[in-house]
Amino acid sequence: MAIEVRIPTILRQYTDGQKAVEGTGDTLAELFADLETRHAGIRARLIDADAGGELRRFVNVYLNDEDVRFLDGVNSKVADGDNVTILPAVAGGMA
């Protein structure tokens, strides 16, 4: 069994159009590194290397419907059967 990662439309160019992919790892950081081995470029869209390897500011990640920023961020533990959802933050308003 693996961890299911739901991919938003804007990042599907890295997953050959797939809406969901599977990966492995003990933490989100390890999971994202594993995804990078099969979907080159996706990790750089999620992780900010200049911010010590933390999530990019405008990327929201949910682990089993829990916002990982309120857990342990990229160090949040994951296990087989977990679901990870990646959502880009949306901003806008009236000009």
Helix content: 10-25%
* Total discrete domains: 1
Apparent shape: globular
Instruction: Kindly report the average pLDDT value.
Output: 92
Q: Uncertain regions: pLDDT < 50 for 5+ in a row?
A: none
> Major sheet, described briefly?
5 strands, mixed
| Gyration radius, rounded | 13 Å
Q: Spell out the CATH superfamily.
A: Beta-grasp domain
Number of strands: 7
CATH class: Alpha Beta
Q: Give the SSE string.
A: EEHHEEEEE
The CA-CA distance between the termini, in Å, is: 48 Å
Identify the strand order in the major beta sheet: 2-1-7-5-6
CATH architecture term: Roll
**CATH domain topology:** Ubiquitin-like (UB roll)
Can you count the helices?
2
Structural class: alpha+beta
Please indicate the percent range of residues in DSSP E strands (runs of 2 or more).
25-35%
Organism: Streptomyces bluensis
InterPro entries: Beta-grasp_dom_sf, Mopterin_synth/thiamin_S_b, Sulfur_Carrier/Prot_Modifier, ThiS/MoaD-like
Protein name: MoaD/ThiS family protein
Pfam family, one: ThiS
Structure description:
It comes from Streptomyces bluensis. This is MoaD/ThiS family protein. There is one protein chain. The protein has helices spanning 28-38, 42-46; strands at 3-6, 20-23, 47-48, 54-55, 59-63, 66-67, 83-88. The chain has 95 residues and is α+β, with helices and mostly antiparallel strands. The protein has one domain: Ubiquitin-like (UB roll). The protein has a five-stranded mixed sheet, covered by helices on one side. Strands 3-4 form a two-stranded antiparallel sheet. The longest helix has 11 residues, at 28-38. It is globular. 24% of the residues are buried.
